[in-house]
Amino acid sequence: MVGYVTVGASDFDKSIGFYLGLLGPLGASRLMDFDGFALIGNTPDDACVAVVRPFDGKPPTVGNGIMVALRVETPEEVDGLYERALELGGSDEGPPGDRGGIFYAAYFRDIDGNKLNAFCMGS
Question: What is the CATH number of domain 2-121?
């Protein structure tokens, strides 16, 4: 169910180098890269690590830049999870939409403020 986990980076390129060095021997490579986001893993269909510049522009800290990503099959399922999260008392962090051409996602927080997203590939 979990598709990838993000880690905040204060030095984006250095962090990417660290994760490529750490995970490269396991067959991981840089699979996607856009707007301060680099996905590292074996294939987009496996669980991956994403190195990110925190979206809010603040320095990364434990928890800032950390997010649970929930993989689903269709954009409609992304929309449904996003709507359901808000109905259950969650808050918006970014409405559903295309990001990066092959990535459809929505961002939200749970009732405790933990950041999550729902996504599908190939939109």
Answer: 3.10.180.10
Q: Sketch the domain layout of the chain as residue ranges.
A: 2-121
Alpha-helical segments (H) within 36-108: 75-87
Whether the CB-CB separation of 103 and 121 falls below 8 Å is answered with: yes
Gap between the Cα atoms of 105 and 96, Å rounded: 5
**The tokens of 80 are what?**
């449904």
If you average pLDDT over every residue of the chain, what do you get? Answer: 90
Q: Which two tokens stand for residue 66?
A: 């950390």
pTM: 0.73
Return d(Cα 122, Cα 116) in angstroms, integer. 20
CA distance 86 to 79: 11
Q: What does the pLDDT look like over 28-52, one tens digit per residue?
A: 999 999 989 999 999 989 999 999 9
